[in-house]
C-alpha cells in the first residue's frame, strides 16, 4: 500500500500532467508550502529555468512578517513573485498548486498574484 508521500507525489504529477496539456506554452507558477514557510516560482519548462521566485525566507519579506505560515505571508509572497515576474516580462502563467488544495494559503498566494498583475 502506498504511503502518504507517494500519494502526494502522484497527486502533484496528475495536476502537472493536466497543466502541461492546457498550458499552451505559458510559464508555470509553482507553489510549495511547508509548515513554516511558503515558496513560489515562475518556471519556464521548455528552457528548464526559473524566471522569478519569492518565499517567506526572502530578507525583505522576513523582516516585515510575523510568521511565514499564515495567509498574510502567502499573500505577500504572491504579490512579490508577481512583481518580479512582470519585471521579467511575464504576464500570463498557469497556476501549479502541486499536491495542495486550492484553499487557505495557496488561495491567498494566487489571489495576491492576480492582483499584482499576473493572469491565470
Provide the descriptors you would attach to this structure in a database record.
single chain, 21% strand, globular, alpha+beta
Q: Can you put this structure into words, describing what you see?
A:
The protein is of the alpha+beta class. The chain has four helices and four strands, in the order H-E-E-E-H-H-E-H. The chain has a four-stranded mixed sheet. A hairpin with a 4-residue loop joins strand 2 and strand 3. Helix 3 runs parallel beside helix 4. The mean pLDDT is 95.
Topology readout:
Blueprint: H1 4-22, E1 27-33, E2 38-44, E3 49-55, H2 59-64, H3 71-87, E4 93-96, H4 105-115
Parallel strand pairs: 1-4
Antiparallel strand pairs: 1-2, 2-3
Q: Unreliable segments (pLDDT under 50, ≥5 consecutive)?
A: none
In whole angstroms, the N-to-C terminal distance is: 36 Å
Oligomeric organization of the protein chains? single chain
Strand order of the largest sheet: 3-2-1-4
Question: Which class best fits the helix and strand makeup?
Answer: alpha+beta
Radius of gyration, rounded?
14 Å
In DSSP terms (H or I, runs of 4 or more residues), the helix count works out at 4
Shape: globular
Largest sheet: 4 strands, mixed
Strand count: 4
Our estimate of the beta-strand percent is 15-25%
Classify the helix fraction into a percent range.
40-55%
Order of helices and strands: HEEEHHEH
Let me know the average pLDDT.
95
Amino acid at each position: 500500500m502506498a504511503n502518504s508521500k507517494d500519494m502526494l507525489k502522484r497527486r502533484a504529477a496528475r495536476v502537472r500532467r493536466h497543466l502541461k496539456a492546457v498550458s499552451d506554452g505559458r510559464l508555470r507558477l509553482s507553489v510549495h508550502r511547508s509548515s513554516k514557510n511558503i515558496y513560489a516560482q515562475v518556471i519556464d519548462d521548455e528552457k528548464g529555468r526559473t524566471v522569478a521566485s519569492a518565499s517567506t525566507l526572502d530578507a525583505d519579506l522576513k523582516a516585515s512578517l510575523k510568521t511565514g505560515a499564515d495567509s498574510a505571508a502567502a499573500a505577500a509572497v504572491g504579490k512579490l513573485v508577481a512583481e518580479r515576474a512582470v519585471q521579467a516580462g511575464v504576464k500570463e502563467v498557469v497556476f501549479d498548486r502541486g499536491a495542495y488544495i486550492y484553499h487557505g494559503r495557496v488561495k491567498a498566494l494566487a489571489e495576491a498574484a492576480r492582483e499584482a498583475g499576473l493572469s491565470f
